[in-house]
Design goal:
By secondary structure, this protein is of the alpha+beta class. It is built from six helices and eight strands. The protein has a three-stranded antiparallel beta sheet with strand order 1-2-3.
Length: 162
């Protein structure tokens, strides 16, 4: 992955294994405006979704996770465009999935902590618990603890891949 930072935007070359399997270039070039990142970063992590695909074929999505320093902390390619969940997980993998989306205001009202809110942003059903920890650059035990609290609040479901 290559990230170049400019005055108004960042340019990212991110891998897309789906494009590569289809015989196209293995990297996708994205330009993400810093203003968009800053608006989305108000509470931790910005997620940029890029829908693309060859003409005549079903589109697929690359999710790119960007931190406040404009560093890409992770990316994930998956089939579909509207929350289609990845099917590439091994049996027994635990996948956190948001049950109920909450607005940014929930942090200001004390319903969730800023850390829990940033975890919710990565729990899109396309990342395992290990990947959530890697993307957020946090200890897996801390992520497990926060996910349990979010589950107790009814905001996240922890799905075990069969």
């Amino acid at each position: 992955m290559v990230v170049r930072k400019y005055f108004q935007f960042i340019e990212i070359w991110v891998p897309c294994n789906i494009c590569e399997q289809l015989g196209y270039a293995p990297m996708v070039n994205l330009r993400v405006m810093k203003d968009d990142i800053n608006r989305g970063l108000q509470l931790g992590l910005y997620t940029h979704y890029h829908v693309h695909g060859p003409e005549g074929q079903a589109p697929h999505t690359v999710a790119v996770y960007i931190d406040p320093a404009y560093q890409v902390t992770g990316s994930k390619a998956y089939e579909g465009t509207e929350g289609v969940k990845s099917s590439t997980f091994a049996a027994g993998t635990i996948i956190p999935v948001i049950v109920k989306k909450i607005p940014d205001m929930a942090v200001h009202l004390g319903m969730v902590t800023p850390e829990e809110f940033s975890i919710l942003k990565v729990c899109d059903g396309n990342n395992s618990v290990d990947e959530v920890a890697r993307i957020l650059k946090k200890d897996k035990a801390a992520i497990d603890s926060s996910l349990q609290k979010l589950k107790d609040k009814g905001l996240v479901d922890l799905v075990k891949k069969a």
